[in-house]
Amino acid sequence: MGTEHPLTRLVDDVDLAGAFWNRRHGLFKGAVPADGLITENDIQDMLDAGLLRWPYFTLLKQGQQPEVTAFTATRTVAGQHLKGFADALKVRELLADGATMKMSQLEDWHAPIRGLMDEIEARLPAELKAYVFYTPCDNTGMLPHRDGSHVLALQLAGAKEWTIYDAPDQVDSRPGLDVDPDSHSHTFVMEPGDVLYLPHGFPHVATARGGTSLHLTLTITEPAPTDLVEALLTTFAPGDLPGNGTEFAGGAVAALLDHLGSVEERVLVDTAVGTMRKRTV
Questions:
Q1: pLDDT one-digit tens code per residue, 109-151
Q2: pLDDT tens digits for 20-49?
Q3: Within 10 Å of residue 129's Cβ, how many Cβ atoms?
Q4: Phi-psi region of 201 (alpha: psi -120 to 50; beta: other; left: phi over 0)
C-alpha cells in the first residue's frame, strides 16, 4: 500500500466506487501531489524531440481542430516518408494563439501514467484511458460536452475553471455536445493537486485561468450491455448438440439459457473488462 500513487490511495480513502459513483461529483482540494507524472517542461521537450505523432496528440480551440497539416510535418524514417509528426514551430504558434494541446492514450507510451492506471484498474472493473490537456490562459479547448465514461481529473500545473451542468435533463450516458449552458451548474477552480470526479455523462467545460493550465484526465468506462453479451458468448461452451435445423437451434438456445443462469456475474464483468482493455483504437 505504501508504494501506491496518492491518486490510487485517494480512490480508496474517499470510497469513490461507493460514495460517489454515478451519484454526484467530488472535488478533492489539494488531495494529491502534482509532481511525478508529466510537466510543462516534459511537453516542451517532447515537441523539440519531434517524436510526438498524430493522433496521439492534437490541437483544439473552442472545440475546433485545425487541419492536421497545420501542426504536423512529414519525416523520413528508415527510408519511408511518414506523416503526422509534431511540427514544434507550428504547434507553438497555435498554442500562442490560444489552442489547447491534447495528448491522447498516454497509457500506450508514458510509463509513469501507465503505472498509475494499472493501480487504479486493479480497483475498478473498467477500461481506463489517459489524456493530458495543455491550455493557454483564458482559453478553452473543448466546448461544453458529455463524455461516455466517468472522469477522474488531476490538476498538474496552473489553474483551470470547471463548470459542471448537473440538471437531470442534461445528464445522459451518451457522449455529446447538446448541453444547455444556462442549466443548473457548479463552477469552481482547480489548482495543482486538486482532483475531480465526474459521474458518467455529466456535462462539463473547463477554461484555463491566470496562466497556462496542465491537467491529466482519466476516462473510466464500464462494460456496456453489448460488452456483457459478448462476454457471455465468449464464456459459452455448449459442447455437442443433437440434431440439426430447428432441433439444433432449440438445443443451442436451451444450452445458452442454462449457461446464462449459471455463469457468475463477476465472471461476465471480468471477461468483458479484459476484452475492453485489449482493444486498440
A1: 999 999 999 999 999 999 999 999 999 999 999 999 999 999 9
A2: 999 999 999 999 999 999 999 999 999 999
A3: 17
A4: left
Burial class of residue 251, CB neighbours in 10 A (0-12, 13-18, 19+): middle
Per-residue pLDDT at 1: 47
User: Which cell is 74 given?
Assistant: 512529414
Contact between 140 and 62 under an 8 Å Cβ cutoff? The reply is: yes
Q: In angstroms, rounded to a whole number, what is the distance separating the alpha carbons of residues 255 and 101? A: 52
Contact 275, 234 (CB under 8 A): yes
HEC per residue, 217-260? EEEEECCCHHHHHHHHHHCCCCCCCCCCHHHHHHHHHHHHHHHH
Contact 37, 216 (CB under 8 A): yes
235: left (phi over 0), alpha (psi -120 to 50) or beta: alpha
Which three cell numbers mark 235? 464464456
Map residue 44 onto helix, strand or coil.
helix
| Helix axes 225-234 and 245-262, enclosed angle (nearest 10) | 110
d(CA 219, CA 240): 42
C-alpha 72, offset from chain centre: 24
Say what the pLDDT of residue 182 is. Answer: 93
Rg (CA), the chain: 22
- Residue identified by cell 468483458 is 272
User: Which of 142, 159, 204 shows the shortest CA–CA distance to 179?
Assistant: 204
**pLDDT tens for residues 168-222?**
999 999 999 999 999 988 999 999 999 999 999 999 999 999 999 999 999 999 9
